[in-house]
Amino acid sequence: VCAQPLIAGDPQPATDIPSIYFNGDILTMEGDEPRYVEALVERGGTIVYVGPKDAALRQFPQAVRRDLQRQ
Questions:
Q1: In whole angstroms, what is the distance from residue 8 CA to residue 6 CA?
Q2: Distance from the CA of 61 to the CA of which of 3, 21, 22, 55 falls in 20 to 30 A?
Q3: What does the pLDDT read at residue 30?
Q4: What pTM was computed for the model?
Q5: How far apart are CA 41 and CA 16, in angstroms?
Q6: Measuring CA to CA, how many Å separate 5 from each of 14, 19, 40, 47, 53?
């Protein structure tokens, strides 16, 4: 768990406003086997969701969207 924002150089500190990270290699180490997921939601420095992107967007509609492939 990270108490700082997860994007290097992000000018805003961690807050209670969630961020959805998607469109990148998101690897969890939960369980016996690592697995890739489509999206991760972070709020206040704590991971609160991992799983399909569409479900993350429905569950956290107010979240800041962070596309990991943006150029």
A1: 6
A2: 3
A3: 81
A4: 0.73
A5: 11
A6: 5, 9, 13, 11, 20
